[in-house]
Amino acid sequence: MIEQKQQLENAVNEALTFAQQLGVNQAEVALGKATGISVNTRLGEVENIEFNHDGAMGISVYVNQCKGSASTADLSLEAIHSSVKAAVDIAKFTSKDPFSGLLDPEFLEKNPLDLDLYHPCNYTTEEFLAVAKECEEIALSSDSRIVNSDGAAFNSHSSLKVYGNTNGFLHSYATSRHSLSCVLIAKQQQEMQRNYSYTSGRDVNDLLSAKWVAEDAAKRTLDRLGATKIKTQESAVIFAPEVATGLFGHLVGAISGMSLYKKSSFLLDSLGTKIFPEWMQISEHPHIMKGLASAPYDQEGCKTIQRNIVESGVLQTYLLPGYASRKMKMESTGHAGGIHNWHVKTGDLDLPGLFKEMGTGLFVTELMGQGVNLVSGDYSRGASGFWIENGVIVCPVHEITIAGNLKEMFMGIEAIGNDIDPRSSLKTGSILINKMKIAGQ
């Protein structure tokens, strides 16, 4: 991958140079190459081995505020020139957009940091399969109630991203990502339940062991046995860390540029206003070494910086790529392509302490469906988890729906536990919300 770095940078430079020779003042080129392997085993047998080696160059030109785009997977000189010409020709037939164009040079990252994001794995195919088989074997033998498996999967992928534009930006960096997962099925009498676990990281040496994944998957699956429905009611709700990240994901969507300039967000005109309790703090850390969402610059070459998203419950910033920032007459925030390692400030309570704080209510460990309206903030999702009484788990529950409104849910957060899930790039503990509607039987 690293050996291709100069070759790919030369290809991007060639496209930019040729665009300028055609009289184009503003052009940008993004080029990515990805390689990897995914293996799946099921019940001790090899189910799938998939290799990937792909990539493409995307070219955008801006001619008199008209945008034209083209792409090519062929990086020969002839193909690059042909694609640039195609982008220029397309621009002749598109409408003018005064907000299109490149970022101003002042926002571009001049000296990108090396964030140690590239750690290729040199395992053989047999070694990948051996780890997946080991994980599944340990899980299947852990308890007689584990009767079946949807398999174990080991994935390892690397990529090299190059971005350049005619404002003098041309840089690249490589990344890697590896993961191991296992999905199990447990049976008790006529009841069957399914659950999973996983581990993920930039460096394969940082992954949790196959034994840990197997045992965690088994525990999560077995804990679901005996699940029942609960009556329809209103109660406090705790979101486990792996589903709590989704709540903040809805925050990301609501404060992102496209939602805002299209006026399709329940947090429209909320900058500088209180949207969480006063103690809430959310910060972004794009330069964490080996971070799963670290990036020295965004997809437009904009600097990424550490910043507070929410401070003392008050929204401090929107998430604005270049186009959205111009539409809204604001500055780009370096979020073209997404967010970068969010940290939610946690409290002192562990999960049992959070149960005691809640007393009686629902502990949600899985969510289903897409019932979230970002325009109104209305929230309705299928859920499963555990019923808590007097601070203690009473029974697993399933086939329920939880509902509320995200504005009220955000303001109704009473505590955040210190049980942070280290596998996520959005670090948060379990979240206690004071009241939600629960539809059961």
Q: Describe it for me?
A:
The protein is built from nine helices and 17 strands. The strands form three sheets. It has a six-stranded antiparallel sheet with strand order 3-2-1-4-5-6. It has a five-stranded mixed barrel with strand order 7-12-13-14-17. Strand 5 and strand 6 form a beta hairpin. Helix 1 crosses helix 2 and helix 3 runs parallel beside helix 4. The longest helix is centred in the N-terminal third of the chain and has 17 residues. The chain is globular and about 70 Å long. The N and C termini lie far apart (55 Å).
Quick summary of this structure?
With 441 residues, this protein is α+β, with helices and mostly antiparallel strands.
Spell out the key features of this protein:
441 residues, alpha+beta, PmbA/TldD fold, 6-stranded antiparallel β-sheet, 5-stranded mixed β-barrel, 9 helices, 37% strand, TldD/PmbA_sf, TldD/PmbA_N, Microcin-processing peptidase 1, Metalloprtase-TldD/E_cen_dom
